[in-house]
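#dry-run=false #mode=assembly
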Amino acid sequence: MVGASGYAGGDLLRIVAGHPHLELAVATGHAQAGSTIGSVHPHVRSFRDVVLAKTEPAALAGVDLVFLALPHGQSAAVAAQLPESVKVVDLGADFRLKDAAAWSRYYPGEHAGTWTYGLPELPGQRELIAAASRVASTGCYAVSTTLALAPLIAAGVADPEDVVVVAASGTTGAGRAAKQHLLASEVIGSLSPYKVGAHQHVPEIKQATGARTLSFTPVLAPMPRGILATVTARPTGDADPAEVLRAAYADEPFVHVLPPGEWPRTSATFGSNAAHLQATIDVDSGRIVVVSAIDNLGKGAAAQAVQNANLMLGLPETAGLAVDGVAP
Amino acid sequence: MVGASGYAGGDLLRIVAGHPHLELAVATGHAQAGSTIGSVHPHVRSFRDVVLAKTEPAALAGVDLVFLALPHGQSAAVAAQLPESVKVVDLGADFRLKDAAAWSRYYPGEHAGTWTYGLPELPGQRELIAAASRVASTGCYAVSTTLALAPLIAAGVADPEDVVVVAASGTTGAGRAAKQHLLASEVIGSLSPYKVGAHQHVPEIKQATGARTLSFTPVLAPMPRGILATVTARPTGDADPAEVLRAAYADEPFVHVLPPGEWPRTSATFGSNAAHLQATIDVDSGRIVVVSAIDNLGKGAAAQAVQNANLMLGLPETAGLAVDGVAP
Amino acid sequence: MVGASGYAGGDLLRIVAGHPHLELAVATGHAQAGSTIGSVHPHVRSFRDVVLAKTEPAALAGVDLVFLALPHGQSAAVAAQLPESVKVVDLGADFRLKDAAAWSRYYPGEHAGTWTYGLPELPGQRELIAAASRVASTGCYAVSTTLALAPLIAAGVADPEDVVVVAASGTTGAGRAAKQHLLASEVIGSLSPYKVGAHQHVPEIKQATGARTLSFTPVLAPMPRGILATVTARPTGDADPAEVLRAAYADEPFVHVLPPGEWPRTSATFGSNAAHLQATIDVDSGRIVVVSAIDNLGKGAAAQAVQNANLMLGLPETAGLAVDGVAP
Amino acid sequence: MVGASGYAGGDLLRIVAGHPHLELAVATGHAQAGSTIGSVHPHVRSFRDVVLAKTEPAALAGVDLVFLALPHGQSAAVAAQLPESVKVVDLGADFRLKDAAAWSRYYPGEHAGTWTYGLPELPGQRELIAAASRVASTGCYAVSTTLALAPLIAAGVADPEDVVVVAASGTTGAGRAAKQHLLASEVIGSLSPYKVGAHQHVPEIKQATGARTLSFTPVLAPMPRGILATVTARPTGDADPAEVLRAAYADEPFVHVLPPGEWPRTSATFGSNAAHLQATIDVDSGRIVVVSAIDNLGKGAAAQAVQNANLMLGLPETAGLAVDGVAP
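#status=ok
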């Protein structure tokens, strides 16, 4: 595991520790190389005495699969040094986009390429992931929006033009680097939007959902984990969007369209790989409104990455992954 | 003051205690009648030994102005018993709507009538409030949305069709009655939507903003105070929405369109009568996105009610009201 | 499982769902009988369609083991109706105390009796639990204090006179009944003590630790889970308290005395059965200071109960229990 | 005002903006010099266009009074450059201690000297402050502990030996510098102790209270503001500690001993200069237990500093200061 000192890395370590079929070969950190996992992630007692190594390809060459949990833009350099025989799941954005121009609009550096997109719940995607040796895990905002919207656009139920999404995320989505605006003093008791009008996840969401224009506004919420996405689109027919979603996910172990009248809350997905959905038609505007809840470190990052790894390694897809959240 | 035991009532008491020109004549409660204010609102030390009275018209007849801070639907009965010489500011929804049918769609009981709408920042409204003896203060969601949207529709800059709003509120907006879903255990660490697809504040927001269709989704956020509203609409021209708002509020003491690049956060309005706004054009969808932040108990309830009372009593409009939030 | 609708019940359900050897036979609720587990505990998707039954002995008679997760004082009546062949783990206070007079000082109703005390980490207790058919699981404050203090008193290192404990708990410790002082609006952003000077858990803590006089002050903290206990006592010698604790728990899977210089934080135990400890000598007063952190629903309630059940059923003691917390 | 960019500086600016007799002459920052107050403290709209100056003695020489809100150890250098005619209130620790050796045990650099101690509620201290041109404001932990304990020791009611204090503070007490352990992700949902066994505020607390040995354990709590201190001491007689405190503070405008049965909560002091106290005798141990609540930025820092400034400038002691908290 590369990049084990961040929040996604910490959750990956926790999941791997409880996974019946995975074994931790090596965990690397950058500034934290040389520290024990216990000191960097006090909650991961299972690996408390394991020392974080430096990120060196040699140390990784012998393993079956590598998780890359690095800041956006840093995965490509590491991936380039890994032999084809080593499977790789990248939690970063580097290999998600098909469109190099879209990459360049939002990220520094060149577009690194395009890997198999790691959202098994998209039609046909599960099989592609199982056959791939390189998978780009979905971003957290993209998971929450795509699960809510993609089946509706695919079914011709929602208009791909003029989709509006407002999504609020817990603070771990912003990473572990010490920044003033992420201090508890600044965040507790406050909601604040960021990157309004131009967010780097828009191209990924459009690519994954089929939306053609998208207004996406992210909000920082005073909680450590969780994304609640409110996704609205104009209907293109009379279908009940909740029923369309219910049919689309009937066999999915981790995506739950709630019973009528129950709406998602992020806490119910805390620590799990679950996504909770509900949908309705707004009586005044007639728009479709879908709300989805995930744990941004769970289905939005670490747990989803393990789900992809399970598929790539031929393991049961649900192995080591919680469907039940830790609540309250 | 009628209904002094709830959260809006508590904030009204606090503001009145520090107000240079207002004096508390009597405070009434319902279940809490007979208790001291100190035991019901431990933060209001100024009135700690004042005992809450029963709500009886006789006790109120001699005062200059009455604040009604009652649950929706309970103001009309009390108001009917007050002489015309007593000015009244109602913090409830009873007298906000012009359209009786809209009232009946969302509230039980008959429509009680329509009072002067208590949002001084709407064009011409300040003068109407100053001349009125009955004012219906604006609802908290309506304040946050109307300040963001009304000038844009009025200026022909935003299309009144297909407005989409997602607004998250702190828990005091849901009142002080003990309900399981409002327990700290349920709320902390969680975001959850409610009344999705059909919210009772939609008619008020449409009436106040001029929007013709409105998708409004409210979200409960893990914080006690604050509303962050994300308001999106299609543009009807090339005007910069931030500049339109800046011009509209240039002389307003409590509405602040932030400098370019700065976006509102709810904590900055905590405990104050301020509203913070910012706007942009979304690069992908071309939609106008306005974000507004208020304190739902401040500009959204108690402080706004005092602003209206100041106007009605011929006092300086800003008397006793904070423009600066208590942060962090 | 009896009393499945509360917070401890919800966490028990979650743990049972992921337990390799336990199977849910029946879950009962009181007011919630007839509801699905999915509607009562939205996070427990594994049992989402299971309907809560009424609490009737007949329904429980055939099972191997019953968990009682009822309000204090209600376990005895149910337990009396269960045959001896059914093993019982009680999460309530009913059967913890040896001293009937101590019970009567703090609880209404008669003392129901004394069961085997369910804290496996006490010397010799693990074997007693394994042999018992009735076990009274330890209270959450008692777990956090006892793990910190009992080995020091037993080793003659800490004076059992004049022990001072201040322990702060998350809100789930106060239960799921809707009470005004537990509303999110009241709790977020606030710390408040309660039952100062006379707390009902004092007799249990004295019985379990050997303390002879104890000042115990509980504090309600703005978080859903977790107890942080600061335990101070006068030393009776020169021993390093951290070393004494380290030796006492060297072989314990769930109790971790942290490396020197690292202090517990409650989040690191979230969702797990772990307890984290650290100790030092205060330089000014010379007092021993031990700080312990647990999840009040984990090692403080549900996970501990499962640990006891594992022992009673001859299962691996750690089966189905997390040692790693879900953090952040 | 020197050091206006931190949290105490921000609260000072807010209080000064609403103060009837104070006027802001100049505000200086360090790294933030050149920025507007609006960008550094978005909540302080009153001074939104004021630009933070560099900290240069020339700019300060003409003012009546300077507030120093700098990190501990940095006040002395600035103070040395101010003429005697300029009154100074220091919010830092530099000039609080009488004992140079105690300073050296906990702080780097030499002891700078001893100024008049800025806690007006200590007997005789109000007059000394009014006559002083240099005042060292009390530290936040010291305020909360001293108000609870000093009258009891002075009255011979509490034994000054073996005092035990556990005090939990909101995160603003740790300052605004970006540090990983203060990130919202780390703090929300967690309690953690720090500097256990040797805290730098112990000498100040002993000096101010008369305690002779003191075990002081600070805890970081998941909230931005507030200190809740639990102070225990052995009684030296039969006096009711609550009555002793009630008598001591009968005429104090900002210190409130609550009615019997009501215990302090930090939220009730939020944004104010109030301190709330309650006391009892623990039934098991016989120890005195006093709990005090303050806002660490209010009575613990900025508001207290203004209270001292009011006295030094011959203004009404309560001018510009709130006795009522902003809650919830």
